[in-house]
């Protein structure tokens, strides 16, 4: 039976199945032996880790422009009658009987055609996944439109609503579906380690721990320790070094009309079982065994009002030694998210007005001294955890972290290896801020001398206070001069624009290009370790009291450990002539 498809688009992405078929190799069915009318069997996980079977009827073998031959099939049975084929089914193996009735692996469910009910889909031939020559039948009917495989939805766990919303919106801009992992996702104690057999759930993961991120799909074929899955690409960038994990399916969310939103599996990655090493147009390939190199990211947050603390730990896949196939490191993406999450979660209900500080340390294999900075944050933003952007401290701190990693991406003198990232946050409620009222100091001074300055300030919505510090008179000053004493302007609400732009780059198909940068980052290359260290250390901070003779450059003369001092005043001096 031959058919003509007038419209087609891809809707299936990943899956979480597990099959009892062949755990090691097993017979495959060449595409040349696949015939219309065959009644076959598919396997996937519908709930938990148990593999379920469903009926697969071969309609035809068709030519998908730009993709090559595909097997057009219709699915049925209790496992799929309600939802059809959902995102998360891709990779589900299809077994068809040979001339003697022996089931053989014909390929992996990989794409859909936008059909209401999601029960007519495309299968990638197993030969293409294994990299073997394919001999399709002659005169294949051709799809009228080129199928567009739906990129594997990324499942992200451990994020509060505002932080997850930032990732979700960046995914929309990048053309990628982002799903929130169920509460407790990614914890190894939730379910036993699963054997990665055909039909089993599998995840190609960027990270694991408190902020797990991965694409959940289905194992199609296993040959010894080698695992083939998905039936299409993850990012389509070739060589990889990601976490190969099992996964757990909570539920299949049903939406019969894929033109509005696809059905999908609500699932989360689980235990690391090996390394995913190849990301090809026809599937992802990994090996059970040793895990890939990872970078630990540790963020600790302290609530200065309640004395409570929390710690987050995430292990991020390190792809430095395979050439950063996405164009930038995955640590660039995960670290700001973990910082934003810690700065949000520590409040147990973020207020509009927040104050805090953060020290960031980035440890490198190539340097005894870490990169880093310590910055203070004071500002008013959106209260609660349901806004368009994360709360104030989370937005400001994660933005500075994003800038630090953007500096790291501008390095052109070596392939630097991040070995550990540590961030320490302190948070409090309200605005720890004061405005300058006046300043007092001796009128007659000597050039180059140091004088004591008393600075009168008013605490935000509070009493007046006097701050004291010492300031040096310029050595070349002569006669009457006027010194400006000033802090920054009152802070404006922080935004997560830098992090959002970086997320769009990271989540875009194929990732960002080498040397690309998010909005606001420098495009100038950094050619030495000392220059990199200086760039990170000088990530903009508005903190401190500055002084300068009118018309001259300013210098910081004072920093109060507990207050951001804003406003401006002047001090007159008469400088004695030597």
Protein model, in words:
It is elongated, with a radius of gyration of 29 Å. The relative contact order is 0.12. Helices cover 13% and strands 40% of the residues. It has six helices and 28 strands. α3 packs antiparallel against α4 (392-409). It has a six-stranded antiparallel beta barrel with strand order 1-2-3-6-5-4. The chain has a six-stranded antiparallel barrel with strand order 9-10-11-14-13-12. Strands 21-28-24-25-26 form a five-stranded mixed beta sheet, with no helix packed on it. By secondary structure, the protein is mostly beta strands. A hairpin with a 6-residue loop joins β17 and β18. The termini are far apart.
Q: How many strand units? A: 28
**Helical content (DSSP H or I, runs of 4+):** 10-25%
The N- and C-terminal alpha carbons lie at a distance of 105 Å
Based on CA inertia axes, which overall geometry fits?
elongated
Task: State the secondary-structure class.
Answer: mainly beta
Number of helices: 6
**What strand line-up does the widest sheet have?**
1-2-3-6-5-4
How much of the sequence lies in strands comes to 35-45%
Query: Which residues sit in consecutive blocks of at least 5 with pLDDT less than 50?
Result: 1-22, 184-189, 513-522
Largest sheet: 6 strands, antiparallel, barrel
Radius of gyration: 29 Å
Mean pLDDT: 86
Quick overview:
By secondary structure, this protein is mainly beta.
Secondary-structure map:
Elements lengths: L38 E7 L5 E14 L3 E9 L16 E5 L5 E10 L7 E6 H5 L23 E3 L4 H14 L3 E3 L20 E9 L3 E11 L2 E4 L8 E16 L10 E17 L2 E6 L5 E10 L5 E9 L12 H16 L7 E12 L6 E10 L11 H18 L8 E12 L3 E8 L3 E3 L3 E10 L4 E9 L6 E8 L10 H11 L21 H9 L7 E5 L5 E4 L5 E3 L1 E9 L2
Parallel strand pairs: 7-8, 15-19, 20-27, 21-28
Antiparallel strand pairs: 1-2, 1-4, 2-3, 3-6, 4-5, 5-6, 7-10, 9-10, 9-12, 9-16, 10-11, 11-14, 12-13, 13-14, 15-16, 17-18, 17-19, 20-22, 22-23, 24-25, 24-28, 25-26
Helix pairs in contact: 2-5, 3-4, 3-5, 4-5
């Amino acid at each position: 039976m031959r058919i003509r498809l007038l419209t087609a688009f891809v809707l299936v992405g990943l899956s979480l199945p597990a099959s009892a078929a062949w755990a090691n190799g097993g017979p495959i069915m060449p595409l040349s032996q696949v015939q219309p009318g065959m009644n076959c069997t598919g396997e996937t996980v519908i709930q938990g880790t148990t593999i379920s079977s469903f009926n697969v009827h071969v309609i035809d073998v068709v030519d998908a422009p730009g993709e090559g031959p595909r097997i057009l099939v219709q699915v049925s049975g209790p496992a799929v009658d309600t939802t059809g084929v959902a995102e998360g089914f891709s990779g589900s193996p299809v077994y068809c009987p040979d001339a003697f009735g022996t089931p053989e692996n014909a390929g992996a469910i990989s794409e859909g055609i936008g059909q209401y009910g999601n029960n007519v889909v495309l299968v990638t031939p197993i030969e293409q996944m294994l990299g073997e020559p394919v001999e399709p039948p002659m005169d294949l009917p051709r799809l009228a439109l080129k199928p567009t495989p739906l990129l594997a939805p990324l499942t992200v766990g451990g994020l509060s609503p505002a932080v997850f919303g930032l990732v979700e919106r960046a995914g929309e801009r990048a053309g990628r579906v982002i799903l929130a992992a169920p509460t407790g996702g990614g914890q190894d104690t939730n379910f036993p380690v699963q054997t990665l057999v055909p039909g089993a759930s599998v995840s190609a993961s960027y990270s694991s721990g408190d902020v797990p991120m991965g694409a959940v799909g289905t194992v199609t074929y296993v040959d010894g320790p080698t695992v083939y899955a998905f039936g299409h690409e993850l990012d389509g960038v070739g060589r990889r070094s990601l976490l190969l994990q099992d996964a757990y399916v909570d539920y299949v969310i049903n939406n019969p009309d894929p033109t509005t939103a696809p059905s999908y599996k609500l699932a989360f990655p689980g235990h690391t079982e090996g390394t995913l090493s190849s990301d090809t147009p026809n599937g992802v390939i990994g090996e059970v065994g040793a895990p890939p190199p990872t970078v630990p990211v540790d963020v600790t947050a302290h609530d200065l009002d309640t004395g409570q603390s929390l710690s987050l730990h995430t292990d991020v896949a390190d792809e430095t030694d395979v050439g950063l196939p996405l164009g930038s490191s995955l640590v660039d993406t995960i670290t700001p998210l973990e910082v934003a999450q810690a700065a949000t979660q520590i409040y147990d209900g973020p207020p509009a007005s927040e104050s805090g500080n953060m020290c960031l340390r980035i440890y490198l294999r190539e340097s005894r001294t870490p990169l880093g900075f310590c910055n203070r944050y004071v500002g008013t933003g959106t209260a609660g955890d349901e806004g368009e952007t994360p709360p104030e401290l989370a937005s400001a701190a994660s933005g500075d972290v994003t800038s630090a990693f953007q500096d790291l991406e501008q390095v052109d003198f070596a392939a630097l290896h991040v070995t550990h990232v540590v961030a320490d946050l302190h948070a409090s409620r309200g605005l720890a801020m004061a405005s300058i009222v006046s300043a007092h100091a001796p009128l007659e001074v000597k050039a180059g001398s140091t004088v004591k300055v008393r600075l009168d300030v008013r605490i935000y919505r509070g009493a007046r206070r006097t701050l004291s510090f010492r300031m040096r008179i310029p050595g070349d000053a002569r006669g009457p001069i006027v010194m400006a004493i000033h802090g920054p302007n009152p802070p404006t609400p922080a935004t997560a624009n830098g992090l959002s732009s970086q997320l769009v780059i990271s989540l875009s198909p194929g990732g960002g290009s080498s040397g690309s940068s998010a909005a606001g980052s420098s495009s100038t290359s950094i050619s030495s370790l000392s220059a990199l260290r200086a760039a990170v250390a000088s990530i903009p901070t508005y903190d401190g009291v500055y002084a300068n003779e009118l018309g001259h450059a300013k210098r910081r003369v004072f920093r109060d450990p507990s207050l951001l001092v804003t406003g401006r005043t002047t001090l007159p001096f008469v400088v004695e002539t030597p």
